[in-house]
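#lab-general

N.A. 3:47 PM
ok so I finally got the sequence cleaned up, no stray characters, all 122 residues accounted for. can someone with queue access submit it? mine expired

B.Y. 3:52 PM
send it over

N.A. 3:53 PM
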Amino acid sequence: MVISETEPKSVGTELTYEKDLTTAFEIITELYKLEKELMTRIEQSGITGRTVTLKVKFADFRQITRSRTLKHSITDFQVLHRVVTDLRKSLDLEGSLIRLLGVSVSNPETDECGDFQLGLFD
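B.Y. 4:20 PM
back already:
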């Protein structure tokens, strides 16, 4: 058993499929389920973040990720769903043999003094 003294910085969910996904309907349906699961985990853990990441692993074990960082943390399912949908649409997945899909949220907002970036002329 591993006990960590640091706070988790991300929360996510992913699933490896027994049968590869190939159609847009299968991909959209599975992503929706993952988004719902992720939102439940966010609500239960209280961990959220500003960066949404979509992970796709193909049958040949190639893997790609796409991320989008927002101005504020994800606290609403509709926002999460919209971002994941945009990320999915940025990829041409239909017809591909997809072995795994994953969705995660990271990059939490913080009030700590050292965790921000100054502007160029500040």
